[in-house]
């Protein structure tokens, strides 16, 4: 560190928070470029992506738990549900020429 004392560098750059290393593989590079092609700080962009991803994962988990609760209420009879109507809908869908195929 030419011209700068080690103490000055450590005092200015140190953080009490742990750091992680992230490899910018092709998938991450594509995700980063989709958000901001030339960020001022790649570290800040990766942090922002991680926080957004955590929010999305938490929301997905909340919706999943909510769906389970609705299904449990249906099975306990707390929410009325017409199983005969559901069976008719499924049968009609099976007869339809416009079938949904999740593999396509």
In summary, what is this structure?
The chain has helices at 6-13, 26-35, 42-75, 83-95. By secondary structure, the chain is mainly alpha-helical.
Detailed description of the structure:
With 104 residues, the protein is mainly α. The chain has one domain (21-95). The chain has helices at 6-13, 26-35, 42-75, 83-95. The chain is elongated, with a radius of gyration of 26 Å.
Largest sheet: none
- What low-confidence regions span 5 or more consecutive residues with pLDDT below 50? none
Rough shape?
elongated
The total tally of domains equals 1
Percent helix range: 55-70%
Helix count equals 4
Strand content: under 5%
Distance between the termini: 59 Å
| Rg over CA atoms | 26 Å
Q: Give the H and E element order.
A: HHHH
Brief descriptors of the model:
104 residues; mainly alpha; 4 helices; 0% strand
Task: Set down the secondary structure blueprint.
Elements: H1 6-13, H2 26-35, H3 42-75, H4 83-95
């Amino acid at each position: 560190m030419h011209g700068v004392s080690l103490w000055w560098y450590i005092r200015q750059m140190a953080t009490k928070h742990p750091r992680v290393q992230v490899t910018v593989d092709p998938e991450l590079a594509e995700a980063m470029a989709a958000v901001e092609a030339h960020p001022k700080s790649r570290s800040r962009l990766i942090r922002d992506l991680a926080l957004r991803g955590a929010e999305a994962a938490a929301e997905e988990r909340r919706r999943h738990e909510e769906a389970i609760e609705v299904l449990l209420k249906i099975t306990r009879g707390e929410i009325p549900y017409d199983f005969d109507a559901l069976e008719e809908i499924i049968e009609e869908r099976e007869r339809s020429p416009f079938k949904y195929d999740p593999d396509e």
